Amino acid sequence: MTGKFLIVGLGNPGAKYAKTRHNVGFWVVDALARRHGFSGERSQKRAQARDGSIHSARVKLAKPQTYMNRSGQSVRALLDYFDIPLTQLLVIHDDLDTPLGSIRLRKAGGHGGQNGLRSIIQHLGSREFARLRFGIGRPPGRMSPVDYVLQPFKGDAAIQADNMVARAADAVESWLADGIEVAMSRFNGDGAPAKPAPTAAELKAQLAVSLRAHELTARDPKPLKSIIALQKKLGCMDEAAGSHLRLAALYDALDKGALANAERVKAVAMQPSLVDVQRQIAKWHLAQHNKKKAVARYLILAQHLQQTGQQSAALETIELALSLNPQHPKARKMRAALPESTDKEN
Fold first, then answer.
1. CA distance to 36, 49, 52, 272, 299, per residue, from 39 (Å)
2. Closest by Cα among 60, 52, 11 to 35
3. Distant-in-sequence, close-in-space partners of 148: CB < 8 Å, separation ≥ 6
4. Alpha-carbon span 247 to 309, nearest angstrom
5. Coil, helix or strand at residue 89
């Protein structure tokens, strides 16, 4: 497939809903952004959106901020504004009728009672778009489905859901690289019960093996890649960010600068507080004579510094961006919003 793609994760905005079953679409979109070092989020067409590439495909990741039952407003606006055809839209959503532990890709279809899909179909006037169902299973006993989807996963189900996020991200990558038919054949299975997800103890045992393999073959990237994947599955995000940086150092030693920089981008996507690494990324782009990406990285860093109250450092970083492109509209807007001088932070 060629051209730009829109991948939409459905959910509800705000901390109140962040960990609920209804927000699994947001989780998958965030996982893809971390994997592939997407740009920082910005508000576009009533969604939080990021831009980047996955397997050479230009991709926009979006999380509508309209609340679930009005998702179609944002999706329609994004498709129209960025001129993206329905054939290059994929919607990721929770599904009560798909068992926990399973995902299902579909070329098209109805909404099945899912209000986000219902809204999208109404606003697009079409059911002909791909969707990825993230199984959450049916509520226990007489619990209302409304109450069920607005509760978080717990215990083993939470571990299983985390593993499903990774599998769903794999399925999206396959859809982009190979098309819907191949992705369906790989990820939909034959309807048999899903294989139980590894327990936390099993994941930790696998991690110990990978750590030992890394000790024995320190110049082989493969064990480090396995370590990163397992750390993410275990929810050890700080450790995973550190492992991305170790992999970056290894790629530097192997004279693979582009791969090293990609790992640094992944690390700061998980930990924006790695300010020195952010600057290192910008300097690498400058060394490649890519001012555009260097400016973009400086502005991402400046935004983080502003959000954490480091106004003087933010101002200095914006000035760096403007020294590379004095007419950059976002840099000028950010500069105008800051005072001419700022007090030194405590």
1. 9, 9, 7, 12, 10
2. 52
3. 21, 96, 136, 138, 139, 140
4. 31
5. strand
Choice among 22, 93, 214, 304 that is catalytic: 22
If one counts every other C-beta atom within 10 angstroms of the C-beta of residue 187, the result is 19
For residue range 108-151, list pLDDT tens digits in order: 999 989 999 999 999 999 999 999 999 999 998 889 999 999 99
Q: Residue 224: helix, strand or coil by DSSP?
A: helix
**Residue 129 to residues 84, 156, 164, Cα–Cα distance (Å):** 12, 33, 22
In the chain, the N- to C-terminal Cα span, in Å, equals: 51
Geometric angle at alpha carbon 78, from 77 and 83, rounded to 5°: 105
Task: List C-alpha distances in Å: 101 to 192, 196, 337.
Answer: 11, 7, 47
pTM comes to 0.58
- Contact partners, residue 2, CB within 8 Å, separation at least 6: 57
Catalytic residue status for 289: no
